[in-house]
Amino acid sequence: MSNTENLNTEAQTAAAVPKKLHIKTYGCQMNVYDSERMAEAMGPEGYVLTDRPEDADMVLLNTCHIRERAAEKVYHELGRLKPLKLAKPDMKIGVAGCVAQAEGEEIRRRSPLVDLVVGSQSYHKLPAMVKAVDAGEKPIETEFPVEDKFDMLPERPASARPTAFLTVQEGCDKFCAFCVVPYTRGAEVSRPADRIMTEARKLVAKGVREITLLGQNVNAYHGAGPAGEDWSLARLVRELAKIDGLERIRYTTSHPNDMEDDLIAAHGDEPKLMPYLHLPVQSGSDKVLKAMNRKHTAAQYIALIERIRAARPDLVLSGDFIVGFPGETDQDFEDTMDLVRKVGYGAAYSFKYSARPGTPAAERKDLVPAEVADARLQRLQALLTEQQRATQQAMVGRECWVLFEKPGRQAGQWVGKSDFLQAVHVKAEGLAPGTLARVRIIEAVTNSLAGELV
Ligand code: 5AD
Ligand code: SF4
Q: Which residues form the pocket of ligand 2, taking CB atoms under 6 Å from any ligand atom?
């Protein structure tokens, strides 16, 4: 997996002959972050990362439970690992993340080759669990422990990348009727602000220029400040912005009802807060929104977007949509299409509803036939793709800032991200990761922009 490939180098590990760890990450950015932290936790145990499962002494699947397909992928992958494990019985197989949290024991029942199961709140226990496997046990940890796992994890090593994720909040109290997150990730917990500030300062000292604050419901962040006072996400962003060398701040994922006034204001007057916002609405039908327990109407969402855009007119908006929620009629779906036309998205993720065990919506019998949901998804995606293309096209001829991350696939090319999170590549030699440069966009290609240094 690409996101952890730079983490543990052989020099950092204690063991003379490093053992190899392969982590496969599914799902959201929180899982990407968690995989990095798990790799770091295993560094002192003598493990270095490998991209190749066939070379690995341990394979960890960091799983996602959000939709049925995501959860099934885990069992599919375990099936693919079976011949490897049979050929190399010493190889350890671990299942981490939200499927681990949700299914625990069931995983080992379905796949006896699994040596350990570690839920997303317990990965600081991974080294001890691996030792237990060596002692012949098959540990499962799916509790929500009282200790803060972040305090138990080793310090983050130097990063080769100028961008980093930083978890500030976990869990969700919203209980949208379709969603497993409140069950797999638990109740909302915000990390204390000073820990976040310290972690951010260390990241910046190690060369990070852009930090994305992560949380399942990140804009509900309310953490304890240094004197025990309450810090909102906006306060946290403003304090982070004071760190010299930190150039960009982003946050994801948010709920419309937690877009507080101070956060909207920060989008207007905090230059380091980037003009890109992922603010899912899921549906444009008030009836469906109510059934989803979203606790806002389509009109309220649109009014909110207008307020945020008044603060930051060039904001690029991204969203999530679900089609085929139980009881969704043709008219409900048309309401979603209308909302998309009114709001205008620069990026979006859209999904066919899938029933998740244990969620209220899974009890409903008024399912939308699969072929109807498929047709709706196609129409919605066509509209969203058109809007995304238009957003990319509108960049052509404009100048923007790009934070360069690494050389591109072609020789003499560097790639980075615009303020609006668009991938941009330029022809340039000898840039360093972390260079922030002005770029004129000359062409919009499918998923990226081509530009030239100004
Ligand atoms: N079915 C389909 N999509 C879902 N999502 C969450 N749960 C489900 C489900 N049961 C989508 C939502 C959410 C995104 C992360 O995944 O759009 O915002
Ligand atoms: Fe799931 Fe997001 Fe709703 Fe929380 S706010 S229940 S994470 S969709």
A: 172, 174-176, 179, 181-182, 216-217, 255
